[in-house]
């Protein structure tokens, strides 16, 4: 193999999911608006505990509201227990016993705590 030519080898790392994380756009102005919109979203998730037990978590409600009063209203409306947990990354997160995702969505929209298009529902469908 004397006189073999060396090829340019691309040794840069490539992340195939980078476009999915940024929404596929490369302009900063739309990225900023998407980041603001993502920051203003209310995420409602379900986490499986043991067996049939589950926890509904609500994250991203505006900080100007009193979370303890919201939990108190959730507990009375949904006949469940709940609390507010301080998460280091996500801030204050409301936890409710049981699967109350759809009830939480309708409650938040009825009480005008957020709009329907600001709510992101996660988890499997009932």
UniProtKB/TrEMBL annotation:
<keyword id="KW-0396">Initiation factor</keyword>
<keyword id="KW-0648">Protein biosynthesis</keyword>
<feature type="region of interest" description="Disordered">
    <location>
        <begin position="15"/>
        <end position="37"/>
    </location>
</feature>
<dbReference type="Pfam" id="PF01253">
    <property type="entry name" value="SUI1"/>
</dbReference>
<feature type="domain" description="SUI1">
    <location>
        <begin position="42"/>
        <end position="112"/>
    </location>
</feature>
<dbReference type="InterPro" id="IPR036877">
    <property type="entry name" value="SUI1_dom_sf"/>
</dbReference>
<protein>
    <submittedName>
        <fullName>Eukaryotic translation initiation factor SUI1</fullName>
    </submittedName>
</protein>
<comment type="similarity">
    <text>Belongs to the SUI1 family.</text>
</comment>
<comment type="function">
    <text>Probably involved in translation.</text>
</comment>
<dbReference type="InterPro" id="IPR005874">
    <property type="entry name" value="SUI1_euk"/>
</dbReference>
<dbReference type="InterPro" id="IPR001950">
    <property type="entry name" value="SUI1"/>
</dbReference>
<dbReference type="GO" id="GO:0003743">
    <property type="term" value="F:translation initiation factor activity"/>
</dbReference>
<dbReference type="GO" id="GO:0003729">
    <property type="term" value="F:mRNA binding"/>
</dbReference>
């Amino acid at each position: 193999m004397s006189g073999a030519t060396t090829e340019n080898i691309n040794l840069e790392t490539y992340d195939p999911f980078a476009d999915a994380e940024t929404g596929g756009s490369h302009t900063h102005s739309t990225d900023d608006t998407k980041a603001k919109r993502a920051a203003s979203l209310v995420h409602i998730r379900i986490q499986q505990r043991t067996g049939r037990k589950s926890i509904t978590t609500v994250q991203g409600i505006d900080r100007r509201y009193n979370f303890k009063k919201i939990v108190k209203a959730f507990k009375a409306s949904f006949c469940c227990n709940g609390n507010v947990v301080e998460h280091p990354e996500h801030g204050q997160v409301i936890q409710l016993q049981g699967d109350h995702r759809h009830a939480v969505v309708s409650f938040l929209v009825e009480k005008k705590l957020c709009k329907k298009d600001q709510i992101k529902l996660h988890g499997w469908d009932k």
